[in-house]
Amino acid sequence: MCDQDQFEKDRQEYEARGMVTRRQFGVLLGAGVAMLLPKVANAVAVTESEVTVMTPDGTADCYFVHPASGMAPGVLVWPDIFGLRPSMRQMGKRLAETGYSVLVVNPFYRAMKAPTAPKGAATPIPEVRPLMQALTETTHMTDAKAFIAWLDKQPSVAKNRKIGTQGYCMGGPIAFRTAAAVPDRVGAVASFHGGGLVTDMPNSPHLQTAKTKAQLLIAIAENDDSRAPKDKDILKETFAKAHLPAEIEVYPAAHGWCPPDTRVYNQAQAEKAWSRLLALYGKALASS
Known about the structure:
Order of helices and strands: HHEEEHEHHEHEHEHHEH
Number of helices: 10
Shape: globular
Largest sheet: 8 strands, mixed
Helix content: 25-40%
Mean pLDDT: 90
Strand content: 15-25%
Radius of gyration: 17 Å
Strand order of the largest sheet: 1-2-4-3-5-6-7-8
């Protein structure tokens, strides 16, 4: 997960295979990011704002976007190692335009406010890895509780609907632990090219999630699968035994393929993942 040398090798391989274009490898900010994300059909008007959330460890700076009128199911978004940035805001806004109240967090607020990666997704991994390594199972759980409690205080969040959570890269296991932290509130969990979902420890994220009642979507990068080919089978077996609905699939794309500002962004596979996310939330959050 988040290995800089492997990341660059993957970028070169995927470019050679024509699965991404060189134009997609640059740092795409602001309008550039927005242009890469297809517009939502029948998008609802949304209200967006920069907000702060109090946690046991301080004040987290976050981005909150929701339908301009009425109430909608809440969604908590955990970014990848590059943190809260324009591409993640765009992804959150796009989700809100489909009818969700979305909180995209800065998981590194203890160290610094966003942006935490000076060059966005082009920031060398060694520069931001210490931020990720400073997070622990405890911070995952306490933050999850604080963020969901904040969502539940917002007038735009439907209290009679379950909350969804999704994570990218390092955010995958945090999303898993979010369900474990607030099992009665979280109804759907999605992980996109998540790293560290399966470990040999008793507190492995996948084992913690298996004790919940959430529905799951787990989209695995093919290069992650090649490095840990047994993980998908462990996930399938674990969630089947727990009787949890889980869609688990290896995508023909590299680790990091979903955010539109990464070097290995794959629009076709990102759109497939997006469609499956909407299907998950449509089933799990539509009614409670």
